[in-house]
Amino acid sequence: MRALPLAIGAGLWFIAAAGISAAQPETAGALKPASDFASIADDNERAIALFTEAGKVIQSPRCLNCHPANARPLQDDDGHPHQPLVVRGIGGTGVTGMHCSTCHGPANFDPGRVPGHPTWHLAPIEMAWVGKSLGEICTQIKDPERNGGKTLDDLVHHMAEDSLVGWGWHPGAGRTPAPGTQAEFGALIKAWVEGGAACPAS
Fold it and tell me: Exposed (0-12), middle (13-18) or buried (19+): which is 130, by Cβ within 10 Å?
């Protein structure tokens, strides 16, 4: 008589395990090195190709989730609204009583699947990327009135060396890292700037 309960229990375990497995993130994709684009003779065409490759990072969930189109951050690889309900607040760090640091510590807390960084916060609303084409994002990030007054050289430094940007490649349990590495991404942005920083049409 014990065989049936054991069989049912084994079946339930298998279903649960399958669900857990299905929920695991995909392996991060690769990025082409900046040198792969050196053979493109036209500066504008090369710059557009470089930014398009870098766009694999910019339009990944690791970036888009913190560049939402409204006051609410997004979560996980599917980009669903943050749970519990939180909003941007002043400086992108949340509102009184629900600051980002209330739950997000200085490092990832994998047992609870809570991401963390010492300066965890949302990007300014002027840098909202969700719902925009790569070309629109490209134009946006070059605009000092929307990018916090950054020059193109500042952008290279931000993309290549900022540790909060770098979190995208070390996002903790249950989240797919951004494609490639931060060094490869930074090299693509640097080559894009050096080539004239042309933007894709769309």
Answer: middle
Confidence band for 19, pLDDT divided at 50, 70 and 90: very low
Amino acid at 155: L
For residues 120 and 94, is the Cβ–Cβ distance under 8 A? Answer: no
One-letter amino acid at 194 equals E
Q: Which pLDDT score, from 0 to 100, does residue 27 have?
A: 62
Q: Which of 130, 127, 134, 132 is nearest to 201 (CA)?
A: 134
pLDDT digits (tens, 9 = 90+) for 147-161: 999 999 999 999 999
Mean pLDDT across the chain, nearest whole number?
A: 88
Ramachandran angles phi, psi of 95, nearest 5°: -110, 170
Is 5's pLDDT higher than 60? no
- The set of long-range contacts for 153-157, using a CB threshold of 8 Å and a minimum separation of 24, is 153/193, 155/189, 155/193, 156/186, 156/189, 156/190, 156/193
Q: Residue 64: is it exposed, middle or buried by C-beta count within 10 angstroms (0-12/13-18/19+)? A: buried
Query: Bridge-partner residues for 98, per DSSP?
Result: 95
pTM: 0.85
